[in-house]
Specification:
With about 350 residues, this protein is α+β, with helices and mostly antiparallel strands. The protein has two domains: about 110 residues, Rieske [2Fe-2S] iron-sulphur domain (Rieske Iron-sulfur Protein, 3-layer Sandwich); about 210 residues, Alpha-Beta Complex (Naphthalene 1,2-dioxygenase Alpha Subunit, Chain A, domain 1), CATH 3.90.380.10. It has six helices and 17 strands.
């Protein structure tokens, strides 16, 4: 049994990654290729020629179609054969590569990996800060050699910041502030409020002033595999609280973990912010800094995955700080079970 939902939208790529040249990427165990038609809409197709299974991503684009580089079978963007290897042969209408439904939203190219008839764009997770006026958004991508759920665990438990990210966003107060975990409307929230503390280096720079601040972290898990982390600081006395905090500087860390295999995933990361919107230089510098922070997570999580494989007689343990990740995993498991029961009933 797979560890991920199949009837779900997953991020396949950033919008800028997909162009007319084929992009190969394995999504939920399925090799796929992505490219743009001449009208810039996105094609997603099984990355295997129906003839001899050579990856179609090695093929030759011809208009909106793609020709296999091995024997020249030509397929249209709907996956159907348009021309046989011997061009005088009549086209066999049964020759077809599987295609997948795509949609673009929030700067991402999304792909539906399950039953095409159920691919409703309304089911795409609401990453609202990525597309809301008054916010700006950018980010990057890493391939990470670990189970995607380990990254969800990591993002739903920010106590690791104190040690893993000590030079940037971590501070001891994170370990001292109480946390609240709430499951509501099919989502998991982990909330932390840190009043009257010194701002860590990044947030002091963003706020552009000295003095004690109130700091917040609100992690939100959304099916099938997204985590949004509402973070920021406001000067003490500005009126911010855990539920309403636009008085200072606020960011939304956006993370989408797309399974590649049982032991690897595609990690799409970024941050939307409501300050310095026109400062493109800051956006570029911060993207580089954020990439460095997440590279620290990559190192930890890949080592953790290796340790799990090396210790098959041991199990992951869950402490108080892990409740958010545990609850998120429970939502995933229940959703997979419900999907399987629905398929069996059908």
């Amino acid at each position: 049994m797979s560890t991920w939902l199949t009837n779900a939208w997953y991020v396949a790529a950033w919008d800028a990654e997909v162009d007319q040249a084929p992009l190969a990427r394995t999504i939920c165990g399925v090799p796929m290729l992505f490219y743009r038609r001449l009208d810039r809409s996105v094609v997603a197709m099984r990355d295997a020629c129906p003839h001899r299974l050579l990856p179609l991503s090695m093929g030759i684009r011809e208009g909106d179609s793609i020709r296999c580089k091995y024997h020249g079978l030509k397929l249209g963007p709907d996956g159907k054969a348009e021309e046989m290897p011997i061009r005088t042969d009549p086209v066999n209408p049964s020759i077809c590569a599987t295609t997948y439904v795509t949609h673009e939203r929030h700067r991402f190219v999304w792909v539906w990996v399950g039953e095409a008839a159920k691919a409703d764009p309304a089911l795409i997770p609401d990453l609202w800060p990525c597309s809301t006026p008054g916010w700006t958004f950018d980010g990057g991508y890493y391939g990470i050699d670990c189970d995607y759920r380990l990254m969800i665990d990591n993002l739903m438990d920010l106590t690791h910041e104190t040690y893993v990210h000590a030079g940037s966003i971590g501070q001891p107060e994170i370990l001292e502030a109480p946390i609240e975990t709430v499951v509501k409307d099919g989502r998991v929230f982990v909330r932390r409020w840190m009043p009257g503390i010194d701002a860590p280096p990044f947030w002091r720079s963003a706020l552009k002033k000295e003095g004690l601040v109130d700091r917040w972290q609100v992690c939100e898990f959304l099916l099938p595999s997204a985590v949004m982390i509402d973070v920021g600081v406001a000067p003490v006395g500005a009126g911010a609280n855990i539920d309403s905090h636009d008085q200072g500087v606020r960011g939304m860390v956006v993370d989408f973990m797309t399974p590649e295999s049982e032991g690897s995933h595609h990690y799409f990361w970024g941050m939307a912010r409501n300050f310095d919107l026109e400062d493109t230089g800051f956006t570029a510098r911060f993207k580089a800094q954020q990439g460095g922070v997440f590279m620290e997570d990559k190192e930890i999580l890949e080592a953790q995955q290796q340790a799990i494989a090396a210790n098959p007689d041991l199990r992951l343990q869950a402490y108080r700080i892990d409740e958010g990740g545990v609850r998120a995993r429970q939502l995933i498991t229940r959703a997979i079970k419900a999907q399987q029961e629905g398929a069996a009933a059908a």
